[in-house]
Design goal:
The protein is α/β, with parallel strands linked by helices and about 325 residues long. The protein has one domain: Rossmann fold (3-Layer(aba) Sandwich), CATH 3.40.50. It has eleven helices and nine strands. α3 links the parallel β6 and β7. The protein is globular, with a radius of gyration of 19 Å. The N and C termini lie far apart (about 50 Å).
Length: about 325
């Protein structure tokens, strides 16, 4: 039986020397089914200001979002970085975490408690998710489980299917090059989903691990698997208000056919279209895998979009008179 009986957030310590000053290290502890779990995150909380939650990438520096922040912007909104140190070599678990006694990933449950506690504590005027690569996957799946005003994803993974090119290419692993059919990506192997069979079985419990699968479930009136599952863990099962997607035509120099775009971007775009969800995209015509947008610019863009929506609430599917600069400033242009 799933139940959160206690959720506490507390300041653990202050870390000096980062992001033009200092940031706080917070821990949220939640008792779920009589077991205590915790999630650490870094950031600054400012009451009654907008909230930006930045998800870091696999094996990425957990402070990257703060290095990229302009000092003048850090007092304008709250920014938090959940720390995913689970998975292979503690490099990240795509923000899924360990499993509970019933075999479900624990972070989706814990993150719901985390965000609810944060919102009660600071009462944000706007909530935005930001993430790149694995962090983009985290921003995406949690936007399916809790409501936020905007989601900005750069080169996100939108499926953890072990058969897609991104997880098959080996990342320089000699065994993958010599034995491509037998190779299993370590990050997925640590999650127990490194084979086609194990991934298919996991989708029955965690349909959000593949965006096409999730969208097909929530748009089918005859199939309520996703809705029933999300009801079980007390979350929603739908897309959030708005998405902005940033990427490149090719993921890296050996992605000569653009497989990353085919496997990760096209399914997401189709899912957003099928669910009639509002979104925008910036796709650069080269090979690369990076964030491409600063946290402050992601927040400013989502704020501007929400302002445009609220200025004409009855015309959201018609042409609006745009008075703002609609293309967000990317890291490439600065």
């Amino acid at each position: 039986m799933y139940a959160i009986t206690k959720s506490i957030i507390e300041d653990c310590s202050t870390i000096n020397g980062y992001c033009h000053g200092s940031i706080n290290k917070y821990t949220i502890t939640a008792t779920i089914d009589e077991q205590k779990h915790e999630l650490i995150f870094l950031g600054r909380l400012i009451p009654n200001k907008p909230l930006l939650i930045a998800f870091h990438g696999w094996m990425n520096n957990q402070y990257y979002s703060f290095y990229d922040c302009d000092p003048g912007d850090l007092n304008k909104f709250s920014i938090l970085c959940p720390q995913d140190r689970s998975g292979h070599m503690r490099a990240g678990s795509w923000f899924l975490g360990p499993r509970d006694s019933e075999g479900y990933f624990i972070y989706p449950k814990l993150f719901v408690a985390f965000l609810d506690t944060i919102r009660q504590k600071i009462n944000p005027s706007l909530s935005v998710f930001l993430g790149s690569s694995m962090g983009g996957f985290g921003a995406l799946i949690y936007s399916l489980l809790v409501d936020v005003d905007g989601v900005v994803m750069s080169v996100p993974q939108t499926t953890l299917d072990p058969n897609v090119h991104y997880f098959r290419r080996g990342f320089g692993n000699d065994y993958a090059r010599v034995h491509p059919k037998e190779y299993q990506f370590p990050g997925l192997k640590a999650l127990g989903i490194s084979t086609r069979k194990s991934f298919s079985e996991e989708l029955k419990k965690s349909p959000y691990l593949d965006i096409s699968h999730f969208a097909s479930l929530i748009t089918s009136p005859s199939d309520s698997i996703a809705v029933n599952l999300c009801s079980k863990i007390k979350v929603k099962a739908s897309f959030s208000n708005f998405y902005h997607i940033i990427g490149t035509r090719y993921d890296q120099v050996k992605d000569v056919n653009g497989e990353y775009y085919r496997h990760m971007f096209l399914p997401l775009q189709s899912a957003l279209l099928d669910t009639n969800t509002r979104f925008s995209m910036n796709i650069y015509p080269f090979a690369g895998h990076d964030a491409y947008i600063y946290p402050s610019e992601a927040f400013k863009y989502c704020s501007m979009v929400q302002s445009e929506f609220s200025s004409a609430p009855n015309q959201q599917y018609n042409y609006l008179k745009i008075k703002s600069k609609w293309i967000p400033t990317s890291a490439l242009a600065l």
